[in-house]
Design goal:
Keywords (chains A, B): Methyltransferase, Transferase
Order of helices and strands of chain A: HHEHEEHEEHEHEHEEHEH
Strand content of chain A: 15-25%
CATH topology of the largest domain in chain A: Alpha/beta knot
Oligomer: homodimer
Organism (chains A, B): Flavobacterium zepuense
GO molecular function, one term (chains A, B): RNA methyltransferase activity
Structural class of chain A: alpha/beta
CATH class of the largest domain in chain A: Alpha Beta
Family (chains A, B): Belongs to the class IV-like SAM-binding methyltransferase superfamily. RNA methyltransferase TrmH family.
Protein name (chains A, B): RNA methyltransferase
Largest sheet of chain A: 6 strands, parallel
């Protein structure tokens, strides 16, 4: 049974303002909830239509009906459980290794896909400008498919961060140098820009290296690549020489 | 002014059944409509909230209000125009060059993104199994951002097509050979599988080469990559040695 108050609180968590106020966010579906339960994220409360996970504190679990799940879910097709978690404290910035930095990537689906890509390519740190989508937006949480538990996502003033960076900064541009012919380091910061406008002028000035994915069509009309697919190609280029596991 | 009948016909085109019956589909927004107008696609009728394109047959243009556009649009935020086009005849299969083949890729956004990627990488032919999303689904048309005009998308029995293919077939699998260390040809067929199940057993048997994108995380829990981001990386690998323009 879910009370009216609980419904109000949970649906409120679809908004950043209430997530910040309550320091809570939620995830849906067995796969994503299981990954969060297995990690360091602290469960606040689980709402499920059946007994699903072992070893949870009974006080933190409520069995609900499908109709009740519909009332609290952010999905068009709710998926048997919704878990509210406590928002963890941001972990400190790490200055070595490969980092991805996002300059105003606003689409939650793109942010979620980029987090999943970072996880795949063993990149543990994603630095976002304050104008990026919020990592605890339910759409981002769902799109990460659990990768959220393995990538540290931080929000900061991107210009300030890049200005004092210890590792080389690689900005991605339509007219940058061919990424396929560059020598790419194991330590560095890869900057990806906004969906419509790319990297802003201020951040461009802080990008020592300007890289681009060459276009192969006969015609010059081809649209730019979507930021998430561009991220896939660029991260693959940075990692391919180290061959993976 | 849009008649009730026109509204019924246009909204009907959101369904494949009616698109096939009328041999029509629609696109929305200046960018996509302009690309289709510039190509070989035949305009059936344009509905726009202002005079937008030059040189069109007046009988094929209707000025409408924002409220009328809302009634015919498939977008949550309609974008000043909606154009109905005639569905062109399928072009014949080409047996050389690089082809992408999709085995039951059902998500319209994924199909649209893959068409855009083919366009970027100069791949002119995309062969889809009959179970794939329909290329004239409005969500696919929007996601292609006009690339639809430069990539020939065909639907066929994928097993029959691959069984008689003249060029080598590269299936993408979670446990295939490291794509970074393969010698990839300029002529071949790259097969990508269904979002949840990957490539089917029947199609797997027809894939002489099994390739995979290596995973770089410390942990083995990382989810598979989304099919559109996997496509980005694989197409980039096939093209990177030819350096682009």
């Amino acid at each position: 049974m879910v009370s009216k108050n609980q419904i109000k609180t949970i649906t409120g968590l679809q908004q950043k303002k209430y997530r910040k106020q309550h320091k809570l966010f939620f995830a849906e579906g067995i796969k994503v909830v299981q990954e969060l339960l297995n990690s360091n994220f602290e469960l606040h409360h689980l709402y499920a239509t059946e007994a699903l996970f072992n070893g949870l504190d009974n006080n933190k679990v409520t069995l609900i009906t499908d109709d009740e799940l519909k009332k609290i879910s952010a999905l068009t097709t709710p998926q048997s459980c919704l878990a509210v978690f406590e928002m963890p404290a941001e972990k400190p910035l790490v200055k070595t290794g490969l980092t991805v930095a996002l300059d105003e990537v606003r689409d939650p689906g793109n942010l979620g896909t980029i987090i999943r890509l970072c996880d795949w390519f063993g990149i543990k740190q994603l630095v976002c400008s304050q104008q990026c989508a919020d990592v605890y937006n339910p759409k981002v949480v769902q799109a990460t498919m659990g990768s959220l538990t393995r990538v540290n996502v931080l929000y900061t003033d991107l210009a300030e961060y890049l200005a004092v960076a210890d590792t080389p900064v690689f900005g991605t541009f339509m007219d940058g140098d061919n990424v396929y012919t560059q020598t790419l380091p194991q330590d560095g910061i890869i900057v990806l820009g906004n969906e419509a406008n790319g990297i802003s002028t201020e951040i461009e000035r802080l990008s020592a290296h300007r890289i681009a994915i060459p276009r192969f069509g006969d015609l010059q009309q081809t649209e730019s690549l979507n930021v998430a697919t561009a991220a896939a190609i660029i991260l693959s280029e940075f990692r391919r020489n180290f061959n993976g596991k």
